[in-house]
């Protein structure tokens, strides 16, 4: 499957294709606890952690992080964790099996965003394409790498915009600008909270005569319902990369663990260019716990609670007369909602001044921080509200009520 025109050998940067990755002795000999490790200039006396050395960071599950092992470099390949991530995303409907060679694991998916740009875009020559409103790090990573950003907005026109991608407009721009190497598509979108239409994505993946990569950012995919991830498609399309993270549904933002499923050849390039020990051993151990057995049950339970609260916020916020529509979708753990300048039945319309006022009052006088998104394309007057616990929803509703009384 896939369109014609994609050729990895001419799409990736020549210096990356030619890169000899850093090799260490532990590529050949794994630390099994029995061999004497005199290869990596570590400190055999252990970590500088008085009082903690013999303690465990965590005592849940069978795998523990013993602080006394922190003087050793972590596994550079993370194959055990990668296998669990493949098991997590393997779709029973899909005959092509995901395998550890399909994966890049990084310090958050933010590392994958940057690694892809470094892999495919020659600074000050190549470009990326994004579809605003979207996640801000695609642009930041491009700017850091001196790579231009071309924008083809989501469909934000009309009375009820779909906030979906516009494949034929994207195709037109790609035809006129051969320097575009990467397209970042966020699904569910941030800040739109909406899944991208799979048929539109297929249209792009089956486009002929384009030599570039489509990156699908699925950071919020677990909130979108069972079986929505398209990670398995990376073995159907030679130029698709699907990024995910443990920062959202798995509640592990603090350990910084993101990953990208990719066709084996692309995953190899990404792994060649990463720092050899990018995933720390505490991160790896905790991630392994999160994506196996009891960790998955915890994630599922927390997700249920978040989905319940999401439904509650959708139901209860419109009772306030200055709350407008929810824009986008409800496929993520946040909602994008309009703040009006007057009550709905008096002709109130979404308004940035009012949205800013609500945002600031909530933060400065009520102790609740949401995100002002009114300046994003198609998001006039909008706040993006993350869905929290039951108590947090109670507080949100109560404090929003107070703010609306005051303004
Ligand atoms: C769409 C999207 N992608 C990626 C990320 C980054 O995730 P990570 O914590 O894995 O770097 C975020 C974080 O908010 C996000 O909203």
Automatic annotation (TrEMBL):
Keyword annotations from UniProtKB, A to Z: Amino-acid biosynthesis, Aminotransferase, Histidine biosynthesis, Pyridoxal phosphate, Transferase
Gene Ontology process terms (BP): L-histidine biosynthetic process
Protein name according to UniProt: histidinol-phosphate transaminase
SUPFAM superfamilies hit by this protein: PLP-dependent transferases
Family note: Belongs to the class-II pyridoxal-phosphate-dependent aminotransferase family.
PANTHER family found in the cross-reference section: HISTIDINOL-PHOSPHATE AMINOTRANSFERASE (PTHR42885:SF2), HISTIDINOL-PHOSPHATE AMINOTRANSFERASE-RELATED (PTHR42885)
PROSITE patterns: AA_TRANSFER_CLASS_2 (PS00599)
An example molecular function term from Gene Ontology annotations: histidinol-phosphate transaminase activity
Lineage: Eukaryota, Fungi, Dikarya, Ascomycota, Pezizomycotina
EC number of the protein: 2.6.1.9
Pathway: Amino-acid biosynthesis; L-histidine biosynthesis; L-histidine from 5-phospho-alpha-D-ribose 1-diphosphate: step 7/9
InterPro entries reported for this sequence: Aminotrans_II_pyridoxalP_BS, Aminotransferase_I/II_large, HisP_aminotrans, PyrdxlP-dep_Trfase, PyrdxlP-dep_Trfase_major, PyrdxlP-dep_Trfase_small
Coiled-coil segments on the chain, per record: none
Reported cofactor(s): pyridoxal 5'-phosphate
Species per Swiss-Prot/TrEMBL record: Dactylellina haptotyla (strain CBS 200.50) (Nematode-trapping fungus)
Catalytic activity: L-histidinol phosphate + 2-oxoglutarate = 3-(imidazol-4-yl)-2-oxopropyl phosphate + L-glutamate
Domain of life, per lineage: Eukaryota
């Amino acid at each position: 499957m896939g369109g014609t025109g994609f050729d990895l050998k001419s799409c990736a940067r020549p210096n990356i294709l030619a890169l000899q990755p850093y090799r260490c002795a532990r590529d050949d000999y794994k630390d099994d606890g029995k061999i004497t490790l005199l290869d990596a200039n570590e400190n055999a006396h252990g970590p500088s952690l008085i009082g903690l050395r013999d303690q465990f960071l965590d005592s849940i599950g069978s795998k523990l992080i013993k602080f006394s092992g922190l003087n050793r470099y972590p596994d550079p390949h993370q194959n055990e964790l990668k296998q669990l991530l493949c098991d997590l995303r393997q779709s029973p409907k899909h005959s092509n099996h995901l395998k550890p060679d399909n994966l890049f694991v990084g310090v958050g998916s933010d590392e994958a965003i940057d690694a892809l740009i470094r892999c495919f875009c020659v600074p000050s020559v190549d470009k990326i394409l994004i579809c605003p409103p979207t996640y801000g790090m695609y642009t930041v990573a491009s700017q850091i790498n001196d790579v231009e950003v071309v924008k083809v907005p989501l469909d934000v026109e009309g009375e009820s915009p779909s906030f979906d991608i516009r494949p034929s407009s994207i195709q037109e721009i790609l035809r006129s600008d051969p320097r575009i190497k990467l397209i970042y598509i966020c699904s569910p979108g941030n800040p739109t909270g909406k899944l991208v239409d799979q048929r539109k994505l297929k249209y792009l993946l089956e486009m002929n005569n384009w030599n570039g990569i489509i990156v699908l950012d699925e950071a919020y995919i677990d909130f979108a319902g069972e079986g929505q991830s398209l990670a398995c498609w990376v073995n159907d399309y030679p130029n698709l990369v699907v990024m995910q993270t443990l920062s959202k549904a798995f509640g592990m933002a603090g350990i910084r663990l993101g990953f990208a499923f990719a066709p084996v050849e692309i995953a190899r390039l990404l792994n060649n260019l990463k720092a050899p020990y990018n995933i720390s051993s505490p991160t790896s151990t905790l991630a392994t716990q999160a994506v196996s057995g009891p960790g998955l049950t915890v994630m599922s339970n927390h997700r249920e609670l978040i989905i319940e609260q999401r439904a509650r916020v959708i139901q209860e916020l419109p009772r306030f007369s200055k709350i407008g529509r929810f824009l986008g979708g409800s496929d993520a753990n946040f909602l994008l909602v309009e703040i009006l300048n007057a009550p709905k039945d008096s002709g109130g319309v979404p308004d940035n001044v009012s949205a800013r006022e609500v945002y600031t009052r909530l933060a400065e006088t009520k102790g609740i921080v949401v995100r002002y998104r009114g300046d994003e394309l198609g998001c006039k007057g909008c706040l993006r509200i993350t869905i929290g616990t039951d108590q947090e929803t109670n507080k949100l509703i109560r404090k929003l009520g107070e703010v609306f009384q005051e303004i």
